[in-house]
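Submission sheet (multi-component)
Chains listed below:
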Amino acid sequence: MSTRLSVNINKVALIRNAREGNLPNLQEVARDCERFGAEGVTVHPRPDQRHIRYSDIPLLKAVNTTEFNIEGNPTPEFMKLIEDNRPHQATLVPDSPDVLTSDQGWDTVKHKSFLQDITAQLNEWGVRVSIFVDPVPAFVEGAKAVGAQRVELYTGDYAKIFGSGQPARAVAPHAEAARVAAEVGLGLNAGHDLNLSNLRFYAEQVEGLLEVSIGHALIADALYYGLSNTIQMYKRELA
Ligand SMILES: CC(=O)[C@@H](O)[C@H](O)COP(=O)(O)O
Ligand SMILES: NCC(=O)COP(=O)(O)O
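Outcome: structure written.
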């Protein structure tokens, strides 16, 4: 089973927002990411709409031919966005509005009742639910308990520890969390700060990885290698 690459286009939207107008055209970039081999498009509309705007979502949905994954904290505004646009997957992330970037996953034990209600509503709308968690077995089990179909393991700490030259220590908790996910029957996604240096090792060591969503490093790499070439480079790391 190969791991799907979902390209997160937040940073393309950040460049677009730096000026009036529509350059780069987000719809075109999303369509081209798929044409270049992406097996999904991911966006994370934040409340301040610093990059992805709520108005982008229906336009991106209209051109999506692979999988559309919308990430975010399940606020009423987020839930309305999901109800109106019905992406394939909603990834629930516990970010506060002012956070620079996502930096932790859910405590699915402490927030069981809330996540249970949100998950049930999303499933009722036909949307697969993935819950963003740190690689902690209890939080993986908690995601199953709230009725989610998948977990997305937060790989920020993995990237930091890998980058400090300790790959085995970096990946160990993720390999264990993946085993727990398989045991309880949860699908497994992963993301945050994955890049061309740390991706292959992660995918080789973490069993049953269905999807990685990658944005920041991939878009930065595309400045040097071009978007088409870069997407192919990332897919080769997953082959
Ligand atoms: C949830 C996660 O780790 C990322 O998907 C997040 O979308 C990154 O958000 P920024 O692009 O705003 O840093
Ligand atoms: N869920 C992770 C994601 O979509 C992209 O994270 P990053 O590669 O921008 O750090």
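Remark: The chain has a mean pLDDT of 98.
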